[in-house]
């Protein structure tokens, strides 16, 4: 049975409140990090999820093992309490965020190289036109 679910963890990091969305689909985990700024209230978090969830950019999927949850309500209550007390984000989530950062870095590097090459080509063509214009004056 494939596990499906999304977990949002909101915590204080440095000077901002940060939310980490962890999406588990089957045995794959993907993560998205959102900076809230000031401490968000429950209704603000709920509104953010409703308005912006489908626009979030999740990291590439990472292999993970889905945990089997028990149907016992007391056990579920204990695990919910344990999750609320846990601080920070999991290491798999951190790996996924790192992968996303690396991917965005390579994309940015590639686009800036293309822009630089296009500008260089434009400058070269401009120089060639000036040279031809000088020779036409004879």
Fold and architecture overview:
The protein is built from 3 helices and 4 strands, in the order E-E-E-H-E-H-H. The relative contact order is 0.12. It has a 4-stranded antiparallel β-sheet with strand order 1-2-3-4. A hairpin with a 2-residue loop joins strand 1 (4-13) and strand 2. The mean pLDDT is 84. The chain is 51% helix and 23% strand. The chain is an alpha+beta fold. The protein is elongated and about 90 Å long. The chain has helices spanning 42-52, 73-85, 91-136; strands at residues 4-13, 16-25, 28-37, 62-63.
How is the topology of this model organized?
Layout: E1 4-13, E2 16-25, E3 28-37, H1 42-52, E4 62-63, H2 73-85, H3 91-136
Antiparallel strand pairs: 1-2, 2-3, 3-4
Instruction: Let me know the average pLDDT.
Output: 84
Strand order of the largest sheet: 1-2-3-4
| Regions with little confidence, pLDDT below 50 for 5+ residues | none
Q: Which structural class matches the secondary elements?
A: alpha+beta
Biggest beta sheet summary: 4 strands, antiparallel
Summarize the entry for a quick read.
It contains 3 helices and 4 strands. The protein is of the alpha+beta class and 138 residues long.
């Amino acid at each position: 049975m494939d596990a499906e679910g999304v977990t949002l963890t909101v915590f204080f990091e440095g000077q901002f409140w940060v939310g980490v969305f962890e999406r588990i689909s089957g045995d794959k985990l993907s993560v998205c990090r959102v900076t809230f700024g000031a401490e968000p209230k429950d209704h603000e978090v709920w509104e953010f999820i409703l308005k912006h969830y489908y626009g979030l950019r999740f990291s590439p999927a990472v292999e993970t093992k889905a945990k089997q949850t028990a149907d016992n309500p007391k056990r579920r209550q204990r695990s919910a309490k344990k999750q609320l007390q846990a601080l920070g984000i999991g290491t798999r989530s951190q790996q996924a965020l790192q992968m996303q950062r690396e991917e965005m870095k390579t994309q940015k590097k590639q686009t800036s190289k293309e822009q630089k090459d296009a500008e260089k080509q434009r400058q070269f063509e401009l120089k060639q036109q000036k040279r031809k214009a000088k020779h036409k004056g004879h």
